[in-house]
Protein backbone atom coordinates (compact mmCIF):
# COMPACT_ATOMS: atom_id res chain seq x y z
CA UNK A 1 0.00 0.00 0.00
CA UNK A 2 1.52 3.39 -1.02
CA UNK A 3 2.14 5.99 1.65
CA UNK A 4 -0.76 8.24 0.59
CA UNK A 5 -3.11 5.27 0.77
CA UNK A 6 -1.84 4.49 4.28
CA UNK A 7 -2.46 8.07 5.41
CA UNK A 8 -6.00 7.90 3.99
CA UNK A 9 -6.58 4.61 5.84
CA UNK A 10 -5.20 6.13 9.08
CA UNK A 11 -7.53 9.12 8.62
CA UNK A 12 -10.47 6.77 8.14
CA UNK A 13 -9.59 4.77 11.27
CA UNK A 14 -9.18 7.92 13.38
CA UNK A 15 -12.41 9.45 12.03
CA UNK A 16 -14.47 6.40 13.02
CA UNK A 17 -12.80 5.99 16.43
CA UNK A 18 -14.05 7.69 19.59
CA UNK A 19 -11.85 6.10 22.28
CA UNK A 20 -8.30 6.18 20.93
CA UNK A 21 -5.37 5.19 23.13
CA UNK A 22 -1.88 6.20 22.03
CA UNK A 23 0.96 3.97 23.25
CA UNK A 24 4.19 5.89 22.72
CA UNK A 25 7.92 5.46 23.13
CA UNK A 26 11.14 7.39 22.61
CA UNK A 27 10.58 7.49 18.85
CA UNK A 28 7.89 10.18 19.23
CA UNK A 29 10.46 12.46 20.89
CA UNK A 30 13.35 12.12 18.42
CA UNK A 31 11.77 14.89 16.29
CA UNK A 32 12.11 17.10 19.39
CA UNK A 33 15.85 16.45 19.41
CA UNK A 34 15.88 13.73 22.09
CA UNK A 35 17.70 10.60 20.87
CA UNK A 36 15.90 7.29 21.39
CA UNK A 37 17.60 4.27 22.96
CA UNK A 38 18.02 1.46 20.43
CA UNK A 39 18.31 3.17 17.03
CA UNK A 40 21.84 3.17 15.57
CA UNK A 41 22.26 6.74 16.90
CA UNK A 42 20.33 5.91 20.06
CA UNK A 43 21.61 6.29 23.61
CA UNK A 44 22.37 2.61 24.07
CA UNK A 45 24.62 2.59 21.02
CA UNK A 46 26.76 5.46 22.30
CA UNK A 47 30.07 4.38 23.82
CA UNK A 48 30.50 4.70 27.60
CA UNK A 49 32.89 2.98 30.02
CA UNK A 50 29.75 1.60 31.70
CA UNK A 51 26.80 0.57 29.45
CA UNK A 52 23.92 3.11 29.71
CA UNK A 53 21.46 0.31 30.60
CA UNK A 54 23.71 -0.40 33.62
CA UNK A 55 23.95 3.27 34.57
CA UNK A 56 20.14 3.56 34.44
CA UNK A 57 19.66 0.75 36.96
CA UNK A 58 18.65 0.91 40.61
CA UNK A 59 21.79 -0.84 41.82
CA UNK A 60 24.04 1.58 39.91
CA UNK A 61 22.07 4.57 41.26
CA UNK A 62 22.58 3.21 44.79
CA UNK A 63 26.27 2.29 44.45
CA UNK A 64 27.48 5.09 42.13
CA UNK A 65 25.13 8.05 42.68
CA UNK A 66 27.68 10.64 41.50
CA UNK A 67 28.27 8.88 38.16
CA UNK A 68 24.53 8.15 37.84
CA UNK A 69 23.69 11.84 38.21
CA UNK A 70 26.41 12.92 35.75
CA UNK A 71 24.90 10.65 33.07
CA UNK A 72 21.32 11.53 34.07
CA UNK A 73 21.96 15.31 33.83
CA UNK A 74 23.81 14.91 30.50
CA UNK A 75 21.40 12.56 28.77
CA UNK A 76 18.01 12.31 30.49
CA UNK A 77 17.25 15.86 31.64
CA UNK A 78 16.08 17.41 28.34
CA UNK A 79 14.11 20.28 29.87
CA UNK A 80 14.57 22.57 26.86
CA UNK A 81 12.97 20.10 24.41
CA UNK A 82 9.64 21.18 22.93
CA UNK A 83 6.68 19.02 21.81
CA UNK A 84 6.81 18.18 18.09
CA UNK A 85 4.07 17.59 15.48
CA UNK A 86 3.29 14.15 16.93
CA UNK A 87 2.68 15.46 20.47
CA UNK A 88 0.67 18.40 19.12
CA UNK A 89 -1.63 16.30 16.94
CA UNK A 90 -2.25 13.86 19.80
CA UNK A 91 -3.20 16.88 21.95
CA UNK A 92 -5.59 18.17 19.25
CA UNK A 93 -7.25 14.74 19.10
CA UNK A 94 -7.53 14.68 22.91
CA UNK A 95 -9.02 18.20 22.90
CA UNK A 96 -11.58 17.00 20.31
CA UNK A 97 -12.65 14.31 22.80
CA UNK A 98 -11.38 11.38 20.72
CA UNK A 99 -8.59 10.18 23.06
CA UNK A 100 -9.16 7.93 26.09
CA UNK A 101 -5.51 8.15 27.18
CA UNK A 102 -1.86 8.42 26.24
CA UNK A 103 0.21 5.56 27.68
CA UNK A 104 3.83 6.55 27.35
CA UNK A 105 7.17 4.94 28.20
CA UNK A 106 8.80 8.37 27.92
CA UNK A 107 10.00 10.35 30.95
CA UNK A 108 10.49 13.63 29.03
CA UNK A 109 7.06 15.08 29.90
CA UNK A 110 6.46 16.22 26.30
CA UNK A 111 2.88 14.87 26.05
CA UNK A 112 1.99 16.94 29.13
CA UNK A 113 3.96 19.93 27.82
CA UNK A 114 1.85 19.70 24.61
CA UNK A 115 -1.28 20.11 26.76
CA UNK A 116 -2.47 16.50 27.10
CA UNK A 117 -4.11 15.65 30.44
CA UNK A 118 -4.79 11.92 30.22
CA UNK A 119 -1.14 10.84 30.23
CA UNK A 120 -0.04 7.62 31.94
CA UNK A 121 3.75 7.76 32.37
CA UNK A 122 4.68 4.10 32.81
CA UNK A 123 8.35 4.93 33.45
CA UNK A 124 7.73 8.12 35.46
CA UNK A 125 8.87 11.65 34.67
CA UNK A 126 11.99 13.80 35.07
CA UNK A 127 9.60 16.52 36.24
CA UNK A 128 9.01 14.74 39.55
CA UNK A 129 11.87 14.36 42.04
CA UNK A 130 11.62 13.50 45.73
CA UNK A 131 13.78 13.19 48.82
CA UNK A 132 14.21 9.52 49.72
CA UNK A 133 14.33 10.46 53.42
CA UNK A 134 11.50 12.99 53.98
CA UNK A 135 9.62 12.80 50.67
CA UNK A 136 9.92 16.52 49.89
CA UNK A 137 9.28 17.18 46.17
CA UNK A 138 11.82 18.98 43.98
CA UNK A 139 11.51 20.54 40.51
CA UNK A 140 13.82 19.25 37.74
CA UNK A 141 15.61 22.62 37.65
CA UNK A 142 16.98 21.88 41.12
CA UNK A 143 18.61 18.71 39.76
CA UNK A 144 19.84 20.50 36.63
CA UNK A 145 21.38 23.40 38.60
CA UNK A 146 23.13 21.38 41.31
CA UNK A 147 26.38 19.45 40.95
CA UNK A 148 27.14 15.96 42.17
CA UNK A 149 24.50 14.09 44.18
CA UNK A 150 21.50 16.41 44.85
CA UNK A 151 20.63 16.57 48.53
CA UNK A 152 17.46 17.62 50.32
CA UNK A 153 17.42 20.31 53.03
CA UNK A 154 16.98 17.43 55.48
CA UNK A 155 20.22 15.84 54.22
CA UNK A 156 18.47 13.02 52.37
CA UNK A 157 19.37 12.08 48.77
CA UNK A 158 16.94 13.15 46.04
CA UNK A 159 15.74 10.60 43.49
CA UNK A 160 14.06 11.33 40.15
CA UNK A 161 10.60 9.75 39.92
CA UNK A 162 11.68 7.60 36.97
CA UNK A 163 11.54 3.80 36.82
CA UNK A 164 15.13 2.54 36.65
CA UNK A 165 16.01 -0.99 35.59
CA UNK A 166 15.37 -3.40 38.52
CA UNK A 167 12.55 -1.13 39.76
CA UNK A 168 8.84 -1.84 39.44
CA UNK A 169 6.25 0.35 37.75
CA UNK A 170 3.73 2.33 39.78
CA UNK A 171 0.66 0.11 40.41
CA UNK A 172 -1.91 2.90 40.00
CA UNK A 173 -0.34 4.09 36.73
CA UNK A 174 -0.32 0.54 35.36
CA UNK A 175 -3.94 0.03 36.44
CA UNK A 176 -5.07 3.26 34.75
CA UNK A 177 -3.08 2.46 31.60
CA UNK A 178 -4.47 -1.07 31.31
CA UNK A 179 -7.99 0.22 31.93
CA UNK A 180 -7.62 2.74 29.09
CA UNK A 181 -6.21 0.10 26.70
CA UNK A 182 -9.00 -2.36 27.60
CA UNK A 183 -11.67 0.24 26.83
CA UNK A 184 -10.12 1.67 23.66
CA UNK A 185 -11.71 1.16 20.26
CA UNK A 186 -8.41 2.08 18.54
CA UNK A 187 -4.81 1.61 19.70
CA UNK A 188 -2.14 3.67 17.97
CA UNK A 189 1.37 2.48 18.85
CA UNK A 190 3.98 5.08 17.92
CA UNK A 191 7.74 5.37 18.22
CA UNK A 192 8.59 2.27 20.22
CA UNK A 193 10.59 -0.89 19.57
CA UNK A 194 8.21 -2.76 21.91
CA UNK A 195 11.14 -4.61 23.47
CA UNK A 196 10.88 -3.61 27.13
CA UNK A 197 8.49 -5.39 29.50
CA UNK A 198 6.14 -5.09 31.30
CA UNK A 199 5.33 -1.94 29.24
CA UNK A 200 5.39 -3.65 25.85
CA UNK A 201 3.21 -6.49 27.15
CA UNK A 202 0.38 -4.11 27.98
CA UNK A 203 -0.86 -3.81 24.43
CA UNK A 204 -2.18 -7.39 24.69
CA UNK A 205 -5.07 -5.97 26.78
CA UNK A 206 -6.42 -4.21 23.68
CA UNK A 207 -9.76 -5.70 22.55
CA UNK A 208 -10.96 -2.97 20.20
CA UNK A 209 -11.29 -2.70 16.44
CA UNK A 210 -8.03 -1.25 15.03
CA UNK A 211 -4.36 -1.44 15.96
CA UNK A 212 -2.15 1.04 14.11
CA UNK A 213 1.66 0.99 14.24
CA UNK A 214 3.57 4.14 13.32
CA UNK A 215 7.25 3.30 13.73
CA UNK A 216 10.33 4.04 11.66
CA UNK A 217 11.63 0.45 12.03
CA UNK A 218 9.87 -2.93 12.16
CA UNK A 219 8.50 -4.12 15.52
CA UNK A 220 7.42 -7.55 16.87
CA UNK A 221 3.78 -6.43 16.58
CA UNK A 222 3.78 -5.43 12.90
CA UNK A 223 2.06 -8.64 11.79
CA UNK A 224 -0.76 -8.19 14.32
CA UNK A 225 -1.51 -4.59 13.32
CA UNK A 226 -4.34 -3.52 10.98
CA UNK A 227 -2.17 -0.73 9.60
CA UNK A 228 1.63 -0.38 9.73
CA UNK A 229 3.34 2.85 8.69
CA UNK A 230 7.15 2.78 8.76
CA UNK A 231 7.76 6.50 8.80
CA UNK A 232 8.32 9.45 11.16
CA UNK A 233 5.45 9.76 13.66
CA UNK A 234 5.47 13.57 13.55
CA UNK A 235 5.36 13.67 9.75
CA UNK A 236 2.58 11.04 9.59
CA UNK A 237 0.36 12.52 12.30
CA UNK A 238 0.81 16.03 10.90
CA UNK A 239 -1.09 14.87 7.78
CA UNK A 240 -4.13 13.81 9.85
CA UNK A 241 -7.12 16.17 10.14
CA UNK A 242 -9.09 16.30 13.38
CA UNK A 243 -12.72 15.81 12.30
CA UNK A 244 -15.35 15.68 15.05
N1 LIG B 1 9.06 8.32 14.20
C1 LIG B 1 8.68 7.03 14.38
N2 LIG B 1 9.47 6.09 14.94
C2 LIG B 1 10.69 6.48 15.34
C3 LIG B 1 11.17 7.81 15.19
C4 LIG B 1 10.29 8.74 14.58
N3 LIG B 1 10.64 10.02 14.39
N4 LIG B 1 12.43 7.87 15.69
C5 LIG B 1 12.72 6.62 16.13
N5 LIG B 1 11.68 5.80 15.93
C6 LIG B 1 11.53 4.41 16.32
C7 LIG B 1 12.76 3.55 16.15
O1 LIG B 1 12.72 2.91 14.88
C8 LIG B 1 12.61 2.54 17.30
O2 LIG B 1 11.98 1.35 16.84
O3 LIG B 1 11.23 4.43 17.70
C9 LIG B 1 11.68 3.23 18.31
C10 LIG B 1 12.37 3.60 19.60
O4 LIG B 1 12.70 2.38 20.24
P1 LIG B 1 13.61 2.44 21.57
O5 LIG B 1 14.79 3.28 21.31
O6 LIG B 1 13.79 1.01 22.01
O7 LIG B 1 12.70 3.23 22.63
P2 LIG B 1 11.49 2.66 23.47
O8 LIG B 1 10.75 1.62 22.71
O9 LIG B 1 10.72 3.83 23.94
O10 LIG B 1 12.24 1.99 24.72
C11 LIG B 1 11.42 1.50 25.76
O11 LIG B 1 13.38 1.09 27.08
O12 LIG B 1 15.39 1.65 28.03
C12 LIG B 1 14.05 1.60 28.22
O13 LIG B 1 12.97 2.96 29.78
C13 LIG B 1 13.49 2.97 28.48
O14 LIG B 1 11.25 3.74 28.04
C14 LIG B 1 12.39 3.12 27.45
C15 LIG B 1 12.11 1.69 27.07
Structure, explained:
This protein has 2 domains: 1-34 and 82-123 and 168-244, TPP-binding domain (Rossmann fold, 3-Layer(aba) Sandwich), CATH 3.40.50.1220; 35-77 and 128-162, SIR2/SIRT2 'Small Domain' (2-Layer Sandwich), CATH 3.30.1600.10. The chain has 9 helices and 9 strands. It has helices at residues 3-16, 52-55, 58-63, 65-76, 85-95, 110-113, 140-145, 171-183, 233-238, and strands spanning 20-24, 99-104, 119-121, 124-131, 137-138, 158-162, 186-190, 210-214, 227-229. A 6-stranded parallel β-sheet has the order 3-2-1-7-8-9, sandwiched between helices. It has a 3-stranded antiparallel β-sheet with strand order 5-4-6. The mean pLDDT is 96. The structure holds adenosine-5-diphosphoribose.
Amino acid sequence: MADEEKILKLQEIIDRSERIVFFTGAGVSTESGIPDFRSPDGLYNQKYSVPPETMLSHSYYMSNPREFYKFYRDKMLCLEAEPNKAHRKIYELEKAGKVLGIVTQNIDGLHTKAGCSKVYELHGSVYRNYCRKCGKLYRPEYIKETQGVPKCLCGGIIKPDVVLYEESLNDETVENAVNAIENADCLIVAGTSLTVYPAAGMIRYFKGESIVLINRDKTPVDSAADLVIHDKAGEVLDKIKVNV
